[in-house]
What does this fold into?
Amino acid sequence: MELPEGWPEHGGPDEVTVVRLRKALYGLKQAPHLWYRHINAFLLSLGFIQSEADPNLYVRNLGEMLLLLYVDDMLLAYAPTAAKEAEEIKQALAATYKITNLGTARQFLGIEMHYETDGSISLGQRVFIDSVLKRFHMEAAHGAATPLDDKVKLDLAEEEEDGEIDPKLYQAIVGSLMYIALATRPDISYAVAALSQYNSRPFARHLTAAQRVLRYLKVTKDYRLRYNAAGPNTLIGYTDSEWASDSADRKSQGGHIFISNGNISWQSRKQDLVATSTLEAEYIACSEASREGRWLLQLCKDTKRNNDDNDDDNDDDNDDDNENNKPLPILCDNEGALTHIINGTIKARTKHIDVCYHNCRDLHERGIVKYSWVSTQENVADIFTKALPREKHEKFTKAMRLW
It folds into this structure.
């Protein structure tokens, strides 16, 4: 770092001039922290409450007004009854910071927002998908009915001596797909999770599979996540796993999804350890779903907090309870795992399971979540554990309210 131009020179060339920064400069390590500290204090002074589940979410008046902060981008959502207060908030922000009011949100972080006359909304990424297809020269490619071919084994590429490819191209494709999967397209989550495992050493088969996902997106780029304005606002979760699905390391693939009036949260992830049975693999998947469900319950609770709530009120004995004391339903298709969760019996086949995975049993016993059985044919989380044939893939895609 050098002194700014025009700074008066002192002494000889051997002397050192030290200056003190009174404000953070853009690009310094301290700048993001100081900016966040300043904007956080300002929003709290306006009567917002910072969410405990997500520190970038601010709530005011029992959820009538929500503000989402991403670095220096803000998204303000409010009920019609809070329109006057929202204008006051905008004026206060404009008086303190140099801001640009873009009006009704149509796009945020590459996610397009569409509003229907009945009050429902939908989220998509058509423009971003088009840019990805153009970047990788796939605009004229033929479409594909599913993200991955359910008959192709990606983990056998090295054994069958497929040629190695440039990892930079492969990583660029997978990175673009990952943002799409995380934002609005849960239907490609498993494909992205599977392809990501080969980022360090991809083969030709992996590149072909990644390009197939692009071809699938080409014909489904108009798909949007749908959220109803009316109807019961009931949150429900699904969890599933595919035991020893990776023939190389024999680890299982787990996944879960939470749905309310639309798709709320989803994940597809290879488990960290080798499960010795389908029961153990499903039990670990239930544990991961329980953690996500507990976080979502806290997030729902935060959006209902009042400005007058103090810290003492938030630490009461009912802090673990769901709204109206109703447990969050989570559905699983493995009866052995459900028996282990509900009854809590320790057997020779399950006594080795690490203590960190027993949170699903604890949350079930405390009435925070409630596990029950669902048929494999109706388990939406199946789409996050393996490549599915066309009919089943389309069925679960529509079940996630994605079309």
